[in-house]
Each structure stands twice: as C-alpha cells, then as structure tokens.
C-alpha cells in the first residue's frame, strides 16, 4: 500500500526523485511510441484496406485526440493522489487496446481501436506534475526537460517498424497473432505490462502530491488566467505540430521523394530526435537565460525553416516594359536540404517545448497538474487537428508543401501574440520609458 505526502509550492528535491524521473521517462518514451505508432503502421494499413489520404489522417488524428483530451483531469488527479498510481493505471490500461489493434480488419474497427490506444498519450501531464512534485525549483527545468525527452518514443516505431514489418509479413505466431504491421502493437502491449511492473517495483511507495488536500475548484482557478491559454497556444505550435509532423512525415517522404518506408522512417527520425532529445537542453537554457528568451529563439527558427519549406521550389519572374517575361534565380530543394531544414525545425521545437513548461511551475507553482494538464491537452489537440488539415490543404491547393504553410501561420500568430504581450507588460511596468524612446538623444539624457 503506497503512502502519500503533500508538498507545498516551494519544496526541496526528494530522496528517490531520480527513480521517479527515470521510470516516468521510460514509461513516457514507450507510451509515446504507442501513441504515434500509426505514423508508420498507417502506410501498410492504407495499402491493405485501400484507404484515402484523408481517411488515413483520421486514424492518427483520433489517437492524438484521446491522448490529449484527458490531460487536464489526469494532471489534476496526479496532484491529488500522486503520479505513481496514475502512471501504473495508464500503462496497464493502454496495453489492452494496443493488443487488439493487431486484429483490426476494417476501417471502423481501426478507428475505434486507434482512439482507445491514444489514451497512452495522457501520461505527459501526469509525468509533468509528478516530477514537479519531486524536484525543487532549481532543478525543475532540467528534470522536466529530461522527462519530456521521452518524446523520442515517436521515433521507436520509425526504426523497428519497417524492418519488422518486412521480415515477418505473412507469418503467424502464438495465439494466432499475425506478422507484418499487426505484430508491432502486440510487442508494444507486452512492453507496456513489463514497464508497469518495473514502475510498481522501483519508484518510492511514499509518493508526493502538490494538491492532496486542495479542492478541485481551487485547482481549476488558474485556468481563468489568459496567460494559461497563451501558453497553450505556444504548445500547439511546438508540440502539436511536432506530433502532427511525426505522424505525417513518413508519408510525405514516400510520396514526394520516392523513398521506401524504411528510409522514410529513418529520415523522420532525424526530425524526431532533435525535437525530443534537445528538450533537456531547452530546459537548461530556460533555467539559465529565461524561458521567454528561449521562446523568441524558438519562434524565429520555426518561422525561418517553415517559411522556406513551404516554398521548396520556384523562381523569380521579371516582367519587362515591352511585356516580355523572363525567369531568374530558379531553385529546387532536393532531399538533403529538405532533411536539414526539417532537422533545424525539430531543434527549435525541442527547445520550445521545454521553455513552455518552464513557465508553468514559475507562474503556477501549486497548480502544475491543472495548468500543465490544460496546456498539454490543448497542445495535443493541435496534433489532432493538424494531420487532417495537412491532408485537406494538400487536396485543396494541390501543393504538398502546404503542410509547412499551416505551421508558418500558426507560429506567426504565436510569436505576434507573445511579442505584443511582452511589449504591453514592459509598458505597464515602466510607462515613463515610452516617452523617451522616440525623443532625440540629447533630450532623453538626464
């Protein structure tokens, strides 16, 4: 029987925090792999069931939806009863639908199971609140960055999926389990149970909770603050877009660069790795320089890379006085430059994801579960809306690169809102400076 101790907003790093961080990160990595496995599995599924691009996009989207919509209540529950119990429940509960995915034989059944498998994605808000309760303020940024690096789980299926699918296709195993793409969810179901058992054994029985005696109404109070919703929009850009691209890029590579599924998975991993593994670096940079500066760097890099990626080929047309037209500076982006730019985009997202969550324990130290849950929920919902948006804008425009146009517009809105907010904050704090900015240097001197 586990015990629970309540911690206040200011607390020291607890004995056993390292074990909590290690097991929560391992669990999150696995759960993230399960959550986004349809990014790779979707391609052979599309061929087997004869699905359109739009139908395929809804499989990943429904998984992302269910992996986002429960993040707020899961975060609140973690603050009340501790992350140990909630993590164990999510691990064991997600193993059941993951196993049954291997037996899906029609589109409707697959949609239902994809939705249920998506429940795994809710571990993020649980782990955020759990680690925040165990680590002191001076180490929270790095700890949350390390935990968040579990996003790298999105690359696991990209690596193991294609070779396993190719090697086992047509085979049948114990209990009638088939090879090919159907074997992957069975492997994940077994791993979920194993990690659940290890978590139960390794993490401290005496758990910590930030709001064990706090009424739910009080925990929801900060959600009225517009700052929480601003942070949520930032997270749509740095996490929702990351989730969407992790699922969408394999198909993008296959369709537009004529590579096979194995190569597409490996190339997608060059986006996932920096977007995940640089999250601890983003946490450290946020601790050192401040989360706001890191967000500026993030949005600038994302605007630059997505702005180029949305116009991968083109030329400048000059219209002469006589009406004649000539074309100049023609350019065409090859696979190498595309991969490099997507890699840089992933780096920016890795920094940004940590910076957004560095804000939360600073502004809302005793409501990390509820605020982090809402931010994570809305960020994840961005991953639900974006894949279908990518598919439909491609159909409407005829341009596959419209994917990055959607990301560019989203980031531009986030960056503009952040900058306007900061300018207003500076004006409110120091209104006397407003009159000095435009005055001649001689007049401005005291």
UniProtKB/TrEMBL annotation:
Residues 19-430 form the Major facilitator superfamily (MFS) profile domain. InterPro entries: MFS, MFS_dom, MFS_trans_sf, NO3_transporter. GO terms for cellular component: plasma membrane. GO terms for molecular function: nitrate transmembrane transporter activity. The chain crosses the membrane at residues 20-43, 86-104, 110-130, 142-161, 181-203, 228-249, 261-282, 294-315, 335-356, 368-390, 402-423. Pfam families: MFS_1. One of its GO terms (biological process) is nitrate assimilation. It is a multi-pass membrane protein. It is found in: Cell membrane. Keywords: Membrane, Nitrate assimilation, Transmembrane, Transmembrane helix. Belongs to the major facilitator superfamily. Nitrate/nitrite porter (TC 2.A.1.8) family. This is Nitrate transporter permease. It comes from Tessaracoccus flavescens.
């Amino acid at each position: 029987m586990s015990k629970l101790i309540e911690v206040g907003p200011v607390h020291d790093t607890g004995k056993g925090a390292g074990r909590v961080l290690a097991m929560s990160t391992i669990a999150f990595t696995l759960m993230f792999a399960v959550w986004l496995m349809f990014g790779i599995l979707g391609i052979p599924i599309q061929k087997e069931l004869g699905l359109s691009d739009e139908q395929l996009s809804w499989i990943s989207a429904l998984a992302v939806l269910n992996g986002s919509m429960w993040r707020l209540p899961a975060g609140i529950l973690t603050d009340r009863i501790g992350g140990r119990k909630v993590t164990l429940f999510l691990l064991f509960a997600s193993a059941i639908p993951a196993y049954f995915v291997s037996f899906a034989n029609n589109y409707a059944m697959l949609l239902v199971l994809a939705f249920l498998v998506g429940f795994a994605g809710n571990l993020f808000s649980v782990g955020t609140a759990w680690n925040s309760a165990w680590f002191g303020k001076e180490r929270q940024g790095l700890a949350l960055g390390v935990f968040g690096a579990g996003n790298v789980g999105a690359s696991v299926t990209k690596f193991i999926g294609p070779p396993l699918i190719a090697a086992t296709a047509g085979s049948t195993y114990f209990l009638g389990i088939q090879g090919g793409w159907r074997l992957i969810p069975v492997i994940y179901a077994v791993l979920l149970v194993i990690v659940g058992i290890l978590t139960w054994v390794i993490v401290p029985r005496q758990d910590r909770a930030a709001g064990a005696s706090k009424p739910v109404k009080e925990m929801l109070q900060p959600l009225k603050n517009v700052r929480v919703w601003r942070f949520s929009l930032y997270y749509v850009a740095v996490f929702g877009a990351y989730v969407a691209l992790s699922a969408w890029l394999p198909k993008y590579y296959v369709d537009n660069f004529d590579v096979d599924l194995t190569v597409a998975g490996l190339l997608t991993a060059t986006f996932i790795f920096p977007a995940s593994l640089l999250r601890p670096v983003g946490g450290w940079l946020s601790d050192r320089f401040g989360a706001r500066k890191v967000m500026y760097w993030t949005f600038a890099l994302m605007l630059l890379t997505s702005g180029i990626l949305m116009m991968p080929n083109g030329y400048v047309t000059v219209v002469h006085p006589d009406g004649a037209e000539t074309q100049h500076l023609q350019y065409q982006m090859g696979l190498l430059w595309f991969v490099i730019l997507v890699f840089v985009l992933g780096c920016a997202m890795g920094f940004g994801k940590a910076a957004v969550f560095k804000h939360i324990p600073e502004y809302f130290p005793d409501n990390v579960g509820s605020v982090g849950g809402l931010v994570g929920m809305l960020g994840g919902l961005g991953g639900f809306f974006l894949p279908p948006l990518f598919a439909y804008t491609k159909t409407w425009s005829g341009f596959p690169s419209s994917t990055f146009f959607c990301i560019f517009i989203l980031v531009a809105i986030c960056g503009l809102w952040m900058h306007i907010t900061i300018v207003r904050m500076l004006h409110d704090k120091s209104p006397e400076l407003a009159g000095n900015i435009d005055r001649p240097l001689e007049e401005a001197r005291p």
